[in-house]
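for the writeup, i need someone to sanity check this before i put it in the appendix. the sequnce is what the collaborator sent (i think, or maybe the updated version? ugh). structure was predicted straight from it, no edits. if anything looks off just tell me and ill rerun, i have time this weekend
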Amino acid sequence: MISVIAAFSQLLTDSKPPKITEARSNNVKLRNDRDKTRDEILLLIDNHLNGSIGSEDFKTKVAGLRQDYSIKAENSNNAKAILDKVKAEHKVRGFNHLNFFLSAIGVPIFLFCIAILLYIISVFLKREKYSSVAELVKLISQASFITSLVYIIWAISPKMDLDRSVWMVAFLTSAYISYKLIAWFLAKKFFFTPPAYIGFEKLRNAVKRLFDYIIIDVNDKFISEEQKEEYVRLYHREFDNVNEIVKK
């Protein structure tokens, strides 16, 4: 239950915290007001370039716009400072806010809990008739444990910046466990043994039909006259390989 709640915990929080949204909206509004006044100053200068820049009317308008711009610029700066403060208050371990943090750590915690559960299951499997599967479950739990633990450490790290060597060690360890998983599967021949209900006779007929298709149907329908000699040589070689495998 804890692992499932962790995996979906980001859904219980706001993806856009109201205080940040409000502060950002106010910052954008005041910044646009400031920029609008700046554009008015530039337009006024452009309209008086022909010679009336020194007039009293021009000076009065420029002075008024400059004062208005200074006020709006200060308001914009204050709004930006408030936005930065609100963002800082909502930060969680380097993430912009709680929703981002839970999104990053929720699934690793889920995987971490599953890894522990699988390890406990592997311990009980050793005591039962499924002891041959216990090693497989144990290896899966180990790979899940290492992968999830690295991402949990990364998420709770203040700078969210683990040393590269940590990632490499985790990667190589997981790769080694994956190699052992593959080796386990290959070592368990019963995974490749035909089910008992098929029966030897049914299996022999199925194999015979397959070989008839390869030797006769494919040869007649899909192989050109120029390639038939090479095709016959190749499938004879493959039959010899199959024969060697059967002898083993």
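The chain has a mean pLDDT of 77. The chain has eight helices and no strands.
thx in advance!!
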